[in-house]
Amino acid sequence: MALAFACTPLHAQALPRRATLGAKLGPATGGVAILEVLPGATAQQLGITTGDIIVSIDGQPTDNPLAVVRAMEPLRGGDPIRIDYRRGGASRTVSGKAASRPFESYANATVKYGAYGFKGGAIRDILVMPAGKPDAPVVFFLQGYTCASIEAGDPFGLYGGLAKGFADAGIGFYRVEKPGMGDSRGGVRCEDIDYATELDAYRTAYRHLVQDLGISPDRIFLYGHSLGGLQAPMLAAENAPRGVAVYGTVLKDWAAYSNDLAIYQNFLINGADPAEEEAKYAMRAATLRHFYVDRWSPERIAAADPAAGQALREMVGWDGGAHAFGRSYVFAQDLPGLPLIKAWRDTKSNVLSLYGASDEVALFDTDQRMIAEVVNWYRPGTARFVSVLDTMHAMDLVGDRDAFRRRNMAAGGLKFGMFNPKVLEPIIAWIRDSMASPPVRVRSFASPVARPTAP
Description:
This protein is an alpha/beta fold. Helix content is 36%, strand content 22%. It contains 16 helices and 19 strands. It has helices spanning 2-5, 9-12, 42-45, 65-72, 158-168, 195-211, 228-238, 254-270, 274-293, 298-304, 306-316, 329-334, 340-345, 366-378, 401-411, 424-435, and strands spanning 23-28, 31-37, 53-57, 60-61, 80-87, 90-97, 109-118, 121-130, 138-142, 172-176, 185-186, 220-225, 243-247, 323-324, 327-328, 350-356, 383-388, 396-397, 418-419. Strands 7, 8, 9, 10, 11, 12, 13, 16 and 17 form a 9-stranded mixed beta sheet that branches. Strands 1, 2, 3, 4, 5 and 6 form a 6-stranded antiparallel beta sheet that branches. A hairpin with a 2-residue loop joins strand 14 (323-324) and strand 15 (327-328). Helix 8 (254-270) runs antiparallel to helix 9 (274-293). The protein is globular and about 75 Å long. Mean pLDDT is 93; it is low at 1-13.
């Protein structure tokens, strides 16, 4: 095992494939509902069908979708699996072998599965390159907050849509798992690490992309989605790529952003009365301050005030232990105070700030507009802001804010759409424009204070 984790890129391609349940999941009393069964995966092969309620996997209770993910995590293709479920009120059990996740494939593109070493483990990476274009520019995608695989389970979903769209445009697409996710083996785990460790994992992947896979920084375009938009400028400030794009991210301090979430998100998603949400937040402001600013542990907050502990469960997804939002609460506490403006100042690259006009997570376009404005203050003409209409945080096409909210209200929860390919249009145009001009890092710009001012 130690030899496997000290692998070269060539050896790393032999990482065993993780098993996949192959189903879209939803909430259910006492388990998780199967909303759709995907062909060829474990659920279909074992006879699980739409409407079934998964109660446990290999004896592990599955009372929410994350529990299903965790139960499937240790399984590789061919491993034995037992699923307890309900169908029409009757309890059933099925046993068999878990199916491997299928490999991605795209017309007119090659897909290379590899890995790189990190902190005693091996992290899976995937490089999709347009056929016959070894010198194509490459988008290095940095995913958002959650600990989830970056493989394209759905060819019409986010990762499949981006990979296909970029390949069709003659552009490569590079992704890496977060530590412990997907086929990754050993070492640290996403749900337990802090922000600095996750940033270092991306830093190591960037170095691997350049040194081992032979992609020059002058052909690399970082694309930070959501939380990845807080990490992309940090990496770019250290080692400038040709460009940095961000989508659905923030510039303001994370604690202030969390205040906005507490007041506005439920209104934007499901029509909760915004005045009532404001009043509710006023009673919880001290709890958020203790968590994000004072960096109190959730246990300390709950011990001082049990009502505050319940508020943490609702506002940051505290699990009663060491995790919030499905990962270490320390990770969340690391986010306030990040020097984001400084990082953007020091990013010697072309910049594209993209915002989905119906984004329910990055609530307002103000920060994304300001990113472009700040960059252009230091390096005029090198940044642009683009708003993509009718598009939510996951880059799905959902209609304008009101239509999106009403759909969610009718569905009784967040209702996703289909990946919006129009997200690709400004990115592809910006990449082509960036490749047609000299890299920003070799250009000279007068200091803002030294520039002549208008009379």
